[in-house]
Recover the amino acids of this structure.
């Protein structure tokens, strides 16, 4: 896990690194520029012969841009710099980097930015654009020449690499301050900034990587932030180990209470996902008349037919048998495809009240708790809830999906604290909150996952990890990360539009393997 911080915290870290650790600002700037040029080549290949336009603002973000320009020039890119300010107006470090650039590339490679046709033609004719206009020093709405430059970058339709932050994006809120660059790739320095994962920041930042520029770890430890980013190395460290002597009992028995007529697919997908993430055994409790349909879909999972209503959903008469079912499992998930039949809702409420196993509550189990979230405080162990913003809004009085999305971290943290649960608020950049108020953001996943059934896959993966003995926080973070990773592999292979939830299940083993190998 990596702390996610505000611009004020980053500025303080930079200052401490320069004054207390004695690392000159220019050294940090040089490392920042190196990180950007290395990432640029990693994503777009060799720059040799490519036309690269670097737009440099008057602050230190622009200074990083001059470093990038010099490094890419050395690699034989055809670099042009468009400067927003004269050398006299630059910060001292940026001015020094400007001079170093002109020393190696000559002065003809730099020209002042202006809103003229030749300048716009240069931008449009670039193979790549580097946005070093504004970083964490952005202090007000962007207007005038900066706004114009941002519009010119966006209007060019060329791939953009943003230095530290897409210019114009509020580093803390992810809101666009008037105008903001839309980047394909962002390389952010030291620690990730909140705004890259919130609101419009998600669309503007593109693929984000965090570059180490040598901020001392002890300074980072002292930063007060309860918001973290789930990282691949956390997942690698946390994944259950499969010892040579292990057997299927070692990896737990996951139970699913899922399905109703018309919705056996949700139960089947959750079961498959639990198996694919490594659960030793999986059994699905299902209304009796749809049991055969489910059995036909599942080879490795077992099923347990249960008493049903006339509408072919779980009936209240299933209570005793489901209580015994839960008692016999290592962990359970309740919710996928249950329906909102009043009798099923009543049953779910009774089950939740006496829940004493590691558990995931999703979909119709959450709908059963709409307006009754106080029941959660009766659970004997804090469950994991996995709402999408619509389900979240039903759990909170007066909330709407829009109000939830407008403050995803705040909503998730408040609910997790008040109800004493682990909360996975799904959607682009899923937020995971803990009863003690700590929160994590998941960087994996893509819009191809906005397709029926991917939520059931996440539920299955989460219960599968709980069954393998991961504590709820670890299970929620690892499941979310792996789920998004499997989705990213699927999108890379199939494209986002045509992929379906079953394709994501098929990629879980590949995601697991990649994370195990680190
Ligand atoms: N040593 C370090 O600290 C390191 C910092 N690093 C890098 O520095 C970046 C932070 O640099 P920074 O603090 O100089 O701020 P930066 O983002 O370049 O912008 C400030 C300039 O923009 C201006 N400006 C502000 N708002 C504006 C607006 N709306 N519209 C127009 N102009 C506006 C503002 O002008 P002012 O309003 O003050 O007149 C000021 O001149 C950081 O993101 C990272 O990339 C790395 O090299 C690692 C080491
Ligand atoms: N734009 C996106 N970026 C990343 N992940 C997404 C995006 N859209 C949806 N997802 C993920 O896909 C899953 C959808 O779950 P959910 O809404 O419950 O769907 P369903 O009920 O159809 O299974 C969630 O894990 C969510 O985080
Ligand atoms: K920038």
């Amino acid at each position: 896990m990596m702390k996610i911080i505000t611009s004020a915290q980053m500025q303080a870290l930079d200052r401490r690194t320069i004054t207390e650790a004695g690392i000159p600002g220019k050294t940090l700037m040089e490392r920042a520029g190196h990180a950007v040029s290395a990432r640029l080549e990693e994503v777009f290949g060799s720059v040799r012969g490519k036309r690269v336009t670097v737009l440099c603002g008057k602050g230190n973000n622009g200074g990083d841009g001059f470093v990038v320009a010099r490094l890419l020039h050395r690699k034989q890119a055809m670099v042009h710099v468009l400067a927003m300010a004269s050398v006299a107006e630059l910060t001292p470090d940026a001015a020094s980097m400007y001079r170093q650039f002109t020393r190696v590339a000559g002065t003809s490679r730099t020209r002042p930015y202006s809103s003229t046709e030749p300048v716009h033609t240069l931008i449009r004719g670039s193979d790549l654009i580097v946005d070093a206009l504004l970083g964490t020093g952005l202090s007000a709405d962007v207007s005038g020449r900066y706004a114009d430059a941002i519009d010119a970058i966006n209007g060019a339709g060329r791939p953009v690499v943003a230095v530290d932050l897409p210019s114009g994006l509020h580093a803390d809120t992810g809101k666009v301050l008037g105008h903001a660059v839309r980047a394909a790739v962002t390389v952010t320095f030291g620690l990730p900034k909140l705004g890259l994962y919130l609101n419009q920041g998600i669309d503007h930042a593109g693929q984000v990587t965090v570059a180490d520029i040598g901020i001392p770890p002890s300074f980072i430890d002292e930063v007060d932030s309860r918001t973290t980013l789930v990282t691949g190395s956390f997942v690698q460290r946390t994944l259950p180990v499969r010892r040579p002597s292990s057997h299927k009992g070692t990896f737990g028995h996951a139970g699913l209470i899922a399905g109703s007529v018309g919705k056996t697919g949700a139960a089947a997908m959750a079961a498959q996902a639990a198996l694919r993430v490594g659960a030793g055994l999986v059994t699905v409790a299902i209304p009796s008349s749809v049991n055969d349909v489910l059995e036909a879909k599942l080879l490795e999972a077992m099923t347990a037919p249960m008493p049903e209503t006339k509408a072919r959903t779980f009936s209240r008469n299933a209570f005793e048998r489901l209580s015994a079912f839960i008692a016999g499992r290592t962990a359970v998930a309740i919710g996928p495809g249950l329906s909102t039949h009043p009798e099923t809702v009543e049953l779910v409420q009774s089950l939740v009240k006496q829940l004493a196993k590691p558990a995931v509550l999703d979909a119709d189990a959450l709908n059963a708790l709409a307006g009754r979230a106080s029941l959660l405080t009766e659970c004997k162990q804090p469950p994991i809830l996995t709402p999408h913003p619509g389900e979240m809004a039903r759990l909170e009085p007066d909330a709407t999906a829009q109000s939830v999305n407008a403050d995803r971290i705040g909503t998730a943290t408040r609910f997790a604290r008040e109800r004493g649960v682990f909360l996975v608020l799904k959607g682009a950049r899923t937020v995971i909150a803990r009863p003690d108020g700590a929160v994590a953001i998941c960087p994996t996943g893509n819009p191809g996952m906005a397709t029926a059934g991917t939520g059931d896959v996440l539920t299955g993966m989460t219960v599968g990890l709980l069954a393998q003995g991961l504590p709820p926080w670890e299970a929620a973070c690892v499941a979310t990360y792996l789920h998004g990773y499997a989705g990213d592999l699927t999108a890379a292979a199939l494209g986002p539009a045509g992929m379906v939830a079953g394709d994501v299940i098929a990629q879980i083993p590949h995601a697991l393997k990649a994370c195990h190998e680190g």
